[in-house]
Amino acid sequence: MRRCLLALLQCLVVLVAVFVVGTRLPGDTADVLRGELGTPEQVEALRARLGLDEPAPARFAHWLGRLFTGDLGTSLTTGVPVGDDLGRRAGVTLALGVPALLLVTVLAPLVGTVSGLREGSRPDRALNAAALVLHSVPEFVLGLLLVASLSLWAGLLPATAVGMEPGDLLARPAVLVLPVTVLTARHLCDLARQVRAGVAAQRHGAVAEHLRLLGLRERTVVLRHVLPGALGAAAQQYARCVEGLLGGAVLVEALFGLRGLGDGFVEAVQNRDLPLVQTYALLFAGTAVAVNLVADLVAHRLAPRRELTA
Amino acid sequence: MSAPDGPYAPPRARRPRLPWAALVLLGVPVLLAVLGPLLYGGDLAPADGALPSRPPGGQHPLGTDVLGRDVLGLVLRGGASVVGGAVAALAVGMAVGVPLGLLAAGPSRRLDEVVMRTSDVLLAFPGLLVLMTLAATGHRAWGWPVAVAGLLQVPAVARLVRGAALAPGARTVVEALRMQGHGWAYVQLRHLVRESAGPLATDAAGRFTTVLYLLASANFLGLGLPASSPDWAVLVERNRDALFLQPAAVLVPAGLLTALCVGGNLLVDRALARGRGLM
User: Fold this and answer.
1) Which of A173, B5, B200, B259 has the smallest number of CB atoms closer than 10 Å to its CB?
2) Full-model pTM
């Protein structure tokens, strides 16, 4: 219950912050639209028409009202309604994020558990070292190296997806292989290491020891106790990863020329297109808040001892 | 005496060895970043008649970049902003986070609630997106991304310090110190800070790579330093189209960045494994 209140509060903070960022700029939308060409009277008239002469709290209420009715405004540079732009880009981001998410969800607990149950063995040490290195290599470096070696040098996979629509992407999955790999690598390694540490710690914990003394089989101990405990601890990390994958993999999209949400955000930032920036910021922060809420609830369910305010 | 053996024996503590690989990986980029600017005092602007993207040789031991600048000089000068930015951001995070954590662990429960709830609210925001929103609103001078990257670390640092100061053992010692007549400042600043120094140091090393990664990503996306800066991440971005023409201009800065991150994480991992083994 308190956790849900916190999430609501977070949403409110995001809304206010996004609005303040929008209003605190030197110059407002009217100045930007008219540029240097308009006379002061014209700018003033436009300002009145857009409702920019109202006091800030009134405008905030106004903006919030339109937000809830689904009117996100129009882009300053293209004049396209923000909603349309978002819809087109969300397809690309999903085509990228969903496979990556599936890979991480399946592989991370698997690798982490296998590794954690054999802590200190040779395969474990090798896996752990590989995960550590892959996790540490910056995404843009990994992407560059993969493109250079696999696509430009060996010619195995396409290097970019410049100018492709979501439909084309699904028709030619080869284009997605490299972006998804780069996107998956970091999160997968991060999560697998977390699960491994959790499994290794739980396996030698007092509770597991006690269950063994009670005569439970090792398999039961691992499946019913060790694994839930380790996954509960990793749920937070998983939330970060979901939010990173779905909330626009900014770097990967920039690297491969994919026109997804992250790329849209960068473009909006570069054009200083505030209605767009506000919407993107709201979307990403909203996703983050929602995913974190779910993660906390799941973590609580899997490992009830871990208090929220630990 | 032989250690207990069998299937449930605790993992054996390995002999402490100096982590040479990690130290070298971390040391080379840091040394370059610190000493580089002293070694190369010259002008970075391309010399007259210098050709862009020339392979190594002649006057330029590592060749030239897309603008015809000497890659060796750029690399020597570019580390300062990478390492300096990360250290500065970390300092900001610590300077705000440690007092907040101590405050939260103090006697006032209401203060604790306020500090912790506020940091909960901030914890959910993805760093890169905050940096991008800042860039969109014109805050793109060097100080802004660094300060924000630092402030983003505050909730985690405050949480850690609060946890260490509230640990049952620490509480007892605090009571004892207070009964001996030591003042608030002595207890807070001498005892509790020392108490949390260990976990804080490990966390700081991990956080260093996080911040480094964040700032490098922002610079790579062109959201931080100007495009003419010799920063390693900016160099990688500028020269990536000429990767095959002049590999050194991309691979050297990229390798240094990677070495820094890998080395830092290796050290942290070791420290954490040690901590687990000792417990």
Assistant:
1) B5
2) 0.73
Structure tokens at A252: 């990967």
Helix axes B71-105, B109-123, angle to 10 degrees: 150
Q: Is the alpha carbon torsion for B218, B240, A250, B254 positive or negative? A: negative
Record the tokens describing residue A172, joined without a space: 């030619």
pLDDT tens figures, B100-158: 888 887 777 787 777 777 777 776 666 777 777 777 666 666 677 888 888 888 888 88
Cα gap A191→A233, rounded to integer Å:
10
Q: Position of tokens 């506020």?
A: B118
> Strands, E, within A148-239: which ranges?
none
CB atoms within 10 A of CB A66: 12
pLDDT band of B2, cuts 50, 70, 90:
very low
Tell me which fold the domain A90-267 belongs to: MetI-like fold (1.10.3720)
Closest residue in A to B221 (Cα) is A251
Q: Residue A74 phi/psi, 5° resolution?
A: -120, 155
Spatial CA neighbour of A109 closest among A23, A273, A222, A206: A222
Residue-wise pLDDT tens digits, B156-185: 888 888 877 776 566 677 778 777 877 766
Q: B60 to chain A nearest CA, in Å?
A: 24
Whether ipTM tops 0.85, in short, is no
3-class SS of residue A121: coil
The DSSP bridge partners found for residue B64 are: B70
Using one digit for the tens of pLDDT, what is the confidence trace for A90-142?
A: 878 888 888 888 888 888 888 888 887 777 778 888 888 888 888 778 878 88
List the single best residue of B15, B119, B132 to mutate versus A (max A Cβ within 10 A). B132
| Under 8 Å between Cβ of B44 and B63 | no
Q: How many CB pairs under 8 A join A and B?
A: 122
3-class SS shares of chain B: helix, strand, coil, % to 5: 70, 0, 30
Q: Which positions in chain B touch A250 (Cβ < 8 Å)?
A: 128-129, 132, 217, 221
CB B254 within 8 A of CB B243: no
**What six digits make up the tokens of A47?**
């300002």
Whether residue B111 contacts residue B104, with contact meaning beta carbons closer than 8 Å, is answered with: yes
Both tokens of residue A303? 């490992």
What are the distances in angstroms from CA B187 to CA A45, B93, B158? 63, 22, 18
Distance CA B74, CA B63 (A): 11
CB B196 within 8 A of CB B164: yes
Burial classification of residue B104, based on how many CB atoms lie within 10 Å of its CB (0-12 exposed, 13-18 middle, 19 or more buried):
buried
